[in-house]
Amino acid sequence: MRRSLLVGAALTTLLGAGCASDPQPRRDGGGAERFTGFAGVVEETGNYLAIAVLGERVRMFVCDSADEVWLEGSAAKDGMVTLKAGGNKRVGFFNTQQGVGTFWIGGRLRSFKAAPVDKPAGLYRAQSPNRNLVGGWVVLPNGDQVGTVTLDGVNQPAPRIDPGKDTVTVAGERLALKAGDQQLSAGG
Fold this sequence. Notes:
Shape: globular
Number of domains: 2
Number of strands: 14
CATH architecture of the largest domain: Beta Barrel
Strand order of the largest sheet: 4-3-2-1-8-7-6-5
CATH topology of the largest domain: Lipocalin
Strand content: over 45%
Largest sheet: 8 strands, antiparallel
CATH class of the largest domain: Mainly Beta
Helix content: under 10%
Order of helices and strands: EEEEEEEEEEEEEEH
Number of helices: 1
């Protein structure tokens, strides 16, 4: 999936139809940022995706158990997020208010719908301290999950996780398992 990430002007036109009602993160009376998780499936591919939104910070993970891509961005006040991969390369958009988005992957424009979810559904990540081992998982509300582990640059299917636990063992290494809100609040 990482092969050719491109962006085109057509992305913004595909965000018109919505599937969720105002899931945009809001601030409570005390000014604290509210976390919102999303999960869904990419149209035409069946790849799972999960999105974590905390204030303006956004992280998205798309995978099919053999390959994966991590996207990040910042939410504007209107709920629009410009998704980037590998630094500053724009590859897609997500509308947090409507729960729809698009991104370029494998030379094709892909559309997706992502509904707001509550834990244990959502985005999970584990990473070794030296960053040579990174695992990502998408857990859907029905309990289905898919994950990918990248070890020294090589992708492989990830072991099943227990979202109620705070660790996962991958390739013999015990790693901290972080849910989406933990990833964004800690910046990791």
